[in-house]
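Input record, target 12 of the design panel.
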């Protein structure tokens, strides 16, 4: 397994997941809700920034690797799914929205794995729709974790709006990737049939 700074940052992102989740299991007399929510939101923002920074460093320093390309999206999906489950438990995100986002992540991950196996991974490469979806949810989640106003900005409402936008973009991007993969799926089915 290669180890360099970009991969170390990805591992740091994975290591932060149980720390963020653990905050919500601390007894109420150990940490107040506002402090807990602030620390969780800040930790999520730091983790999200490492997502951007590790990819930038890997490209800039020419340290890209197949292991890093595998680990990075796994870390992202684990981080987002863990945060959504926390928010679902807190009643800050609707179960239907969480199901859409988590279900899409599983579906597209499986689709990409299958397309790579048959040598057609280029048809489901990351598209700007997926990047917009990721940006919306990476801003929405810390807003929903913080769940209060900050400098007069109601971050709870901003988070609710952005997570709905992220869910819409999630469905849209999933349809885009499935449509791109459909010719390969059809060809494979026709050969067997």
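The sequence produced for target 12 reads:
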């Amino acid at each position: 397994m290669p180890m360099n700074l970009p991969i170390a940052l990805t591992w740091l992102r994975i290591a932060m997941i149980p720390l963020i989740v653990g905050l919500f299991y601390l007894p109420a007399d150990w940490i107040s809700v506002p402090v807990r929510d602030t620390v969780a939101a800040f930790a999520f923002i730091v983790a999200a920034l490492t997502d951007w920074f590790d990819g930038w460093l890997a490209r800039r320093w020419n340290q890209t690797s197949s292991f890093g390309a595998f680990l990075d999206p796994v870390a992202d999906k684990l981080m987002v799914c863990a945060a959504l489950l926390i928010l679902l438990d807190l009643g800050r995100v609707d179960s239907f929205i969480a199901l859409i986002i988590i279900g899409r992540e599983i579906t597209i991950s499986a689709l990409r794995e299958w397309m790579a196996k048959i040598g057609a991974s280029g048809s489901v490469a990351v598209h700007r729709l997926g990047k917009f979806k990721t940006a919306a949810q990476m801003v929405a989640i810390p807003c929903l974790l913080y769940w209060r106003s900050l400098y007069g900005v109601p971050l709870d409402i901003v988070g609710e709006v952005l997570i709905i936008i992220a869910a819409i973009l999630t469905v849209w991007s999933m349809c885009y990737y499935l449509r791109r993969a459909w010719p390969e799926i059809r060809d494979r089915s026709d050969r067997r049939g």
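Strands lie at 149-150, 153-154.
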